[in-house]
């Protein structure tokens, strides 16, 4: 009986280790860098908060001018963002231009990695990188 219990525990641990975890992403991340074609952009106050809304993994935050939310899917180190909506306000042209870059970098990111307390969202095709620091 003891061996059977150990077998089931081992199978359960193996199955869990193959699952995609969103735990590391959960919480608020503040933008510290936005890089487009290798060029750092001037940033304004913007952030992404990851978490669950009912059963869906979601992102919400401030993109500079507008508040937004979106559905997010994680598969390994791949990230997919869909169903983005925002408040639709209009700001000064420089802030709107930044917000467009922020949304493009976030929504079009295909992979991510976390190094120390920095989340880096990448889109190698579009040559964008969005860097965010964990807000503790």
Q: N-to-C terminal Cα separation, in Å? A: 45 Å
Cα shape: globular
- Characterize the biggest β-sheet: 9 strands, antiparallel
Average per-residue pLDDT, rounded, comes to: 89
- Beta-strand segment tally: 9
β-sheet strand percentage = over 45%
What are the SSEs and their pairings?
Blueprint: H1 2-17, E1 27-36, E2 39-40, E3 47-53, E4 56-62, E5 67-75, E6 78-86, H2 93-107, E7 111-115, E8 118-123, E9 128-134
Structure description:
- With 136 residues, the protein is α+β, with helices and mostly antiparallel strands.
- 23% of the residues lie in helices and 46% in strands.
- Strands 1, 2, 3, 4, 5, 6, 7, 8 and 9 form a nine-stranded antiparallel beta sheet that branches.
- A hairpin with a 4-residue loop joins β4 and β5 (67-75).
- The model is unreliable at 4-19 (pLDDT under 50).
């Amino acid at each position: 009986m003891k061996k059977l219990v150990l077998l089931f525990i081992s199978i359960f641990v193996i199955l869990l280790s193959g699952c995609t975890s969103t735990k590391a992403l959960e919480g608020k991340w503040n933008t510290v860098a936005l890089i487009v074609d290798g060029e750092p952009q001037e940033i304004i106050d913007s952030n992404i908060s990851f978490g669950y809304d009912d059963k869906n993994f979601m992102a919400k935050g401030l993109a500079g001018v507008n508040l937004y939310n979106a559905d997010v899917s994680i598969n390994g180190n791949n990230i997919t963002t869909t169903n983005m909506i925002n408040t639709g306000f209009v700001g000064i042209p420089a802030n709107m231009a930044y917000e467009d870059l922020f949304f493009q970098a976030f929504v079009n990111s295909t992979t991510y990695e976390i190094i120390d307390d920095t989340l880096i969202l990448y889109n190698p095709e579009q040559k964008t990188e969005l860097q965010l620091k964990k807000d503790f």
